[in-house]
Amino acid sequence: MRQEILRLAHVTCEEKGVKVLNDFNLQILAGEIMGLQPLNDLGLETLLELLQQNRKLYYGYVYYREKPVNTYLESHGSASRIAVIEKRSKLVGEMSVADNVFVVSSAYRRHLIDPALLARRLRVYTDELGLSIPPDRRVYELTTVERYIVEMIKAIVAGARLIVLSEISTFISQNDLQRIHQIIRRYTADGISFLYVCGHHEELFSICDRLALMGNGQIIKILEPDQFTPDMLAHFIRWYADARNVSAAESPDARPVVLQIRDLRSGPIRDLTCKARAGECVVVQDLDNSVFPALLKILAEGQRPESGAILLRGQPFSPKRDARRLAVIQENPAKTMLFPKMTYLDNLCMTLDSEIPSVWRSRKVRNSLRREYRERLGNVFESRVDHLTMAQQYTLVYTRILLQKPEVVFCMQPFQGADMGLRIHILSLMDLLLQKGIALVILAVNLSDSLTLADRLVLVQDGATLRALEKDHFPALWKRKGY
Amino acid sequence: MNRNQWKYISGRLGFLVVLVNALLFVLLVATCAVLREHDDNILVVLIGAALMIAMNLVLWFCVIRPFREGERWLTLLLGGYTASGIYHVSCSISPATEQLLQRVADRLNIDEQLIANKKQAQYLALQNQINPHFLYNTLEGIRSEAKMAGLDSVADMSKSLGSFFRYTISKVENLVRVEDELQNIETYFYIQKYRFGDRLRLITEWGDGDEAELRRCLLPKLTLQPIVENSIIHGLECKVGVGTVRIRLTRTEKRLLIRISDDGVGMSEETLQNLNRKINRSALENIRADSEQNNGIALLNVNNRIHLLFGEEYGLSVYSTPGVGTDVEINLPCLFDERQLKNRGEVLS
Lengths: 483, 349
Description:
The complex is a heterodimer of chains A (483) and B (349).
Chain A: E1 4-15, E2 18-29, E3 33-38, H1 44-52, E4 59-64, E5 67-71, E6 82-85, H2 97-103, H3 115-128, H4 144-157, E7 162-166, H5 174-188, E8 193-197, H6 201-207, E9 210-215, E10 218-223, H7 230-236, H8 238-244, E11 257-266, E12 269-277, E13 281-286, H9 292-300, E14 307-312, E15 315-316, E16 326-329, H10 333-336, H11 344-348, H12 363-377, H13 390-404, E17 408-412, H14 420-435, E18 439-444, E19 456-461, E20 464-470, H15 474-480
Parallel strand pairs in A: 3-8, 3-9, 6-7, 7-8, 13-18, 13-19, 16-17, 17-18
Antiparallel strand pairs in A: 1-2, 1-4, 4-5, 9-10, 11-12, 11-14, 14-15, 19-20
Helix pairs in contact in A: 2-3, 2-4, 7-8, 13-14
Chain B: H1 3-6, H2 9-35, H3 42-78, H4 95-129, H5 132-148, H6 152-170, E1 175-177, H7 178-196, E2 200-206, H8 211-216, E3 218-220, H9 224-236, E4 243-251, E5 255-262, H10 269-280, H11 283-293, H12 298-310, E6 315-321, E7 325-333, H13 338-348
Parallel strand pairs in B: 2-4
Antiparallel strand pairs in B: 1-3, 4-5, 5-7, 6-7
Helix pairs in contact in B: 2-3, 4-11, 5-6, 6-7, 11-12
């Protein structure tokens, strides 16, 4: 008989009169890894908040280790003993790892701090996991994966029996993710439970004991391991399955090569080589998460590489001359590439001035744009960007890139932080670029959805191209990676 | 403030509170302005500010918070979530309002008893109409005739039907063992197999917990059969090909969890929402709705019985997706003896 660690029964939470969690039911047993795949964003933030802090419920019950800790009848608003690990660090950057784990805790009762003792205690935990994190290292010096591990140790030390991991794979490489998975499995053997929140079903299938699908603030279905198949998931999102095959229709082999990166060296980039044809999607996966910032400096900021070349249709790439021929879509483009206080139309015209210099003066040009795109975009042109939905903001970014008429588009971690619905939307926008004959290069540290449209995968390790895999070899890759 | 809020005394009072606060604040600022050149009079301003804060705190704790709490309970009652909130209204607006709420609470209680009694009476009347011994003897007669005629399948079928009715009609106790319920399900399935043949499969899975212990757990009689029947009729009957009903039992220290899943046609989102809305309504409302509409749904009846026996925190949850199937999760207290239920009742009361 396993102990029940968490039960949410008929939990209903309201925000500004909207039920963001509606009749939400979830049970997690001791030593279980429960996956949670949000099909859309509604209620996810509230759920994470509810797990950390026993916030007031509109209706329902929350049980922790079979005892009611928060009900609609009585809610203390106190902190719970559930740790949530996410993008935002909860550690104090200026303090050492040992201090963060032991001292920055409500359970720490001593008046004097003995660094040697804390270091010895921390080593017990790190040695157990086969890690070597110096106890006196400052937290801001840690890598993302080390920070996740320290937060997990801190949670265990504080007595948490349930750890929530929210979208951790977005910020770490595939190798680091495997390391985290090993640690998770190690802790589950001790009866620690995990709620693994992630938008990528392949990743969830590889680690979870059960998987809860969440949509519109409700649990829609709990999948058992024998139901962990893409086909089963496709029932829930039919158009997801359709999107997976969109680029399979036409092989781009016969098309001309528009981008070539040859023996590129610059900082952490030691020997990067890859190519992309018109209308082809190439995924560059950095297994160490180290080369992309340097690559972006060359592409977007015009920094000269130490050696090697980037060729556009056989000609050396010049940042000034080819600024419009090569586009870069940054991480979280809705936040980084749009002006939130400006209108949709103004944002759309932002890169048009090279094609149509009179775009800012001529009302005629702008009206023509409105007419041309009204059918596809809707009547949103006068709306301010911060009033738009996330999907509309992404549409705006990609449409702006389309208007720019580039030959190559680099997408930096395009699915980062996106829920299932948004990811499907991004895939359809990318497909639009491919249909226009634009070469698409996806830069990713984690594969997941990136392979959906890919024709070729280029693996990069230690700053150098490890190998390139054609589409036919992807299934073998999934198998080897444990998906 | 909009016109709707002005309709209610609460809205008007809220407006007046804000107005008085604003006036006091203006008065305080004006006093500050007048006295700012006299350092010795700053104390007057501080006392004024402290009094204003104190007044607002008293207003918050003695008036606004109890009022909001009362409103919340009434909203939950009106939303159909729970009727228990009406007993939690600690501070009424006026003596007449308090009496009104008390009257409503009394009526709810009387109604509940009346309806429960009426249901019990209907059940007994039904039981009396069917003379069980006559039914069993007839089925036994059919079985003998079938055996003699060499019709083994008819004989087996009438034997199963006899067992099914014996369990359904004869035993009138509230709680039965899981193994009895499962035995009844198997009998029911056996009968249904004559209709569906190999198109129907039943799988029982024992999750976490000792199987022998799980078999001894108690649950309200006829909890599983109506749900399995629903799975077959609404889920699998319309499905092309083989359909499976899977019963998975798990227990934790305090709970017994039973999940009945089918891989049938599932139900539309609208149907599921309607069903869940009805399930989430208090047992009291559902009893009344049933008696009014006279078309009680099996799932609602099971949920109502669980609510009335064990409380609102137990009951059913339904998940369904078209083309995937339907899962019904039953959440019960883990009991091995009826005395545990009585003890729970005493603790709760």
